[in-house]
Amino acid sequence: MKKAVVLLSGGLDSATCLGLAKAQGFELVCLTVVYGQRHAVEVEQAKVVARAAGVKDHRVVTMDLRAIGGSALTADVEVPKHDDVSHVGGGIPVTYVPARNTIFLGLALGLAEAVGARDIFIGVNAVDYSGYPDCRPEFIHAFESLATLATKAGVEGGRFTIHAPLSGLTKADIIRAGVKVGVDYAVTHSCYDPSPDGRACGRCDSCLLRRRGFEEAGVPDPTRYAR
Question: Which of 88, 91, 107, 121 could, after both became Cys, cross-link 163 (CB 3.0–4.6 A)?
Fold first, then answer.
């Protein structure tokens, strides 16, 4: 079996990505990054998601992006809230974490080279998302080229493939795809600003997009919302 490194946040998208990689027959190595995010509950959910998928090798890397800041997820900046999903969009929101996916993919690339994997899965989405520049297909393609240039494996003739299977899908399509491969969305977490008991706020961009996705997919939403 070929190995694949899957970036796993514990959210809906990355859990679906994991399910799709598993369905393709890869031996799974998961990587979760604790980066000082205010929604750290997602890290515990990532562990649950990995166990549910039967992952035997799950690495958790800790780094402090709060030392850099620049985002509502890593600094004392209020997370935007809306009453309706139609208010989401327009520009890059303050929940964008500077260079986060570049950093995450760099870590995943290092892990892939270390364990002999040449495939990396990331759950970025360029349709139902909040406008982050590091979720676009152009970024994924550019990083794939960098991976060949920047590694011993690449210099010696190996080639890395960055899989972003959710890139062109709506949130509803993502949920339908996950249901087909047996993803249990009840154990995932997407909220940027959860309550102390871990319930989703229901009003941040991520919650609103998630809720609409379940509605449009015709799948019951198992999320515990504070409102």
Answer: 121
The two three-digit tokens of residue 129, written as one number: 């998302």
Structural domain boundaries in the chain: 3-217
% of the chain residues with pLDDT over 90: 82
CATH number of 3-217: 3.40.50.620
pLDDT at 89: 67
The 3-state DSSP composition of the chain as helix, strand, coil percent (nearest 5) reads 40, 10, 50
Pinpoint the alpha helices (H) of the chain: 12-23, 41-52, 100-115, 137-149, 152-155, 171-180, 205-217
**If residue 189 lies in a helix (H) or strand (E), which one and from where to where?**
none
* Contact indicator for 95, 69 with CB cutoff of 8 Å: no
Specify whether the CB–CB gap between 138 and 102 falls below 8 A.
Answer: no
Query: For the whole prediction, is pTM greater than 0.85?
Result: yes
Contacts of 36 (CB under 8 A, 6+ apart): 63, 64, 65, 66, 67, 74
Mean of per-residue pLDDT scores for the chain = 93
Residues 6+ apart with CB under 8 A from 227: 201, 202, 203
CA 159 to CA 143: how far, in whole Å? Answer: 12
Q: Is 95 exposed, middle or buried (0-12, 13-18, 19+ CB in 10 A)?
A: buried
CB atoms within 10 A of CB 50: 23
